[in-house]
Amino acid sequence: MSEVLQSDKYFYIDTHAHLDMLKGITAEFAVSESLRENVRYIINVGSSISGSRKSSEYSRQFENVYASAGIHPHYVRNFEDKYIDTLENLIRENEKIVAVGETGFDYFRNLSPKVDQQKAFTKHIELAQKYKLPLIVHDRDAHGDIFEVLKYYYRGIKNSDKPDTGPSAKSGYSTGISNAVIGRSASFGGSERKKVVIHCFSGDTGFALKCIEEGFYISFTGVITYPNAKLLQQTVKEVPLERIFIETDSPFLAPQEKRGSENYPGYVIYIAKKISEIKNISLTEVARITSENALGFFNISF
Hints:
By secondary structure, the protein is of the alpha/beta class. It is built from 9 helices and 8 strands. The relative contact order is 0.15.
């Protein structure tokens, strides 16, 4: 790449990685090589009970790795409250767990029944709000339901003001979510309302802007580098840089320049580079602002 940042002031943060899922390289190699590429911090995201435990372990092992605790919607079949208890214990034991998730809805593969996904999602939200931690949201073909649940919990709508979940809902998205999910309002104000990120964003520009209006953040992966991602690239152009994170979602979704390779946090620079091209701004500015966004969101002191 023509512009690589090796600076104490400007650096990259991979806000969503799964070092515990790497197969071709070790976590040790991935972390050290990413540091060499000026990826200063990595958020290793839990996607199962075992993955959350491993994520916590990595945050203790590597100074520049932080963790989240959560269970991906693929793995919430027959979801039980004891799983949340386990995640809560991890949070209590490790101050480097800086977020809850990933959690949300996946209606593309539907590996878990919707009722289990709904229960798990709201339990994760309640856990995040209890500890005033950011929420990392997985959204696949579920934009309307995701938006309605987040809007409800993070606006603190009263029980009597159940959101319109029909085709004419103000969000502009038809949703089949049950009223049982919209169970109670949350007293959660101030800047904490903004502590939600839609990771690996796959919606359209309209959905992105609605999320921005709610105070949420949008995170982009290597998908924006793909030749067939024209609509997503337009969304990148429209979303303010101050609301953007960059992530690899490694070991998945390697950027176009590295397709066929196992993705790892060092490749987050390719996502930053694509954003700089789309927005016609310097790579330095993309690195600086997206890193400032992530530091504040995850409450990481630099």
